[in-house]
Structure formats: structure tokens, C-alpha cells
Amino acid sequence: MENLADIAIERELSALCSRADADFAALAGLRKSERQAKWEYLWGSRSLRTRQMTVASGIGLAGMAIRHGSVCRIDSLSGLMKPADCPVMLAEHLKAAAAFALVATGGLNPEGILFIGRRTDKAFSDDEITAVAQLVAGIKKLYLL
């Protein structure tokens, strides 16, 4: 049985997807000793493989967000990274995605990662990224207790 914190986080992920017009959301915590993350919460997932994946610093979109400690995004039109370079995007058939590093207040290093994605070609705009970043603050409060 899920505890209340798990239910609250899953509700926040669902609400985040609704507000951001996203099809998928995932939340992972970093294992400090390994600098890797494991997906703990998934919303809108269509692949059993996603939960099994680990995220390493610098690998894929989520890994780049961890490495830089900021927001990273890609879509089918950007030239920096292709969806095929991101294991989560491949497994979930996403065409646009953004990853947000979760840094505790007063902290320097990310303690988690929030990943959102769309299965359509619609890229996340700057305004949408800003709006989602504000919503991420609520999830961060629940997750980084």
C-alpha cells in the first residue's frame, strides 16, 4: 500500500502533466554515493523498461540536467541532442522532453530529477518551461523532505 507522500507526489505529477500538456512525467532521486538516479515515480508511462532504467550524470537528457544542475530540453527539431540519444525518450516514444534538476534550498548539487515529455512534435516553449519550473517547486517540497 502506498503512503500519503507517494500519493501526493503522484497527484502532483498528474497535475503537472495536465498543466504542461505533457504525456509523461517521472521523478528520480540521486544516489549520492553513485551519482546515479533511479526512476521512483512515473506518470503516463507505457513502457515497463523505464522504471528499470538508471540515470547517470551526463547520459541522456536527465543526465545532462544532473550534470549542469539546471533545466535541459530537447525535441525533434533541436540540433543539440536528438530524442534517440535519450533512453527514456526512446522507451516512452517521446518526441519532446524537458528535465529539471531538483536542488534543495541552499544546496549546490542536484538531489533529484524531474522529467516531462510529449509524444507529439510540439516542443516545450520558454514560457512553458518557466511555468513548469514554478510547479516543480511544489513537487520539490514534497520530494526533498
Helix-strand blueprint:
Layout lengths: L3 H17 L3 E8 L4 E8 L5 H4 L1 E3 L3 H9 L2 E5 L11 H6 L3 E8 L6 E9 L7 H18 L2
Antiparallel strand pairs: 1-2, 1-6, 2-3, 4-5, 5-6
Helix pairs in contact: 1-5
Q: Residue-averaged pLDDT, rounded?
A: 87
- Under CATH at level 1, the class stands as Alpha Beta
Biggest sheet strand order reads: 3-2-1-6-5-4
Number of domains: 1
Low-confidence stretches: none
- Amount of beta strand: 25-35%
Give the number of helices.
5
Largest sheet, in brief, is: 6 strands, antiparallel
Going by CATH, the architecture would be 2-Layer Sandwich
Number of strands: 6
Write the CATH homologous superfamily: GAF domain
Task: Summarize the helix and strand pattern as letters.
Answer: HEEHEHEHEEH
End-to-end distance, in Å? 20 Å
Q: Over the alpha carbons, how many angstroms does the gyration radius reach?
A: 14 Å
Structural class: alpha+beta
Organism: Paenibacillus nasutitermitis
Protein name: GAF domain-containing protein
InterPro entries: GAF-like_dom_sf (IPR029016)
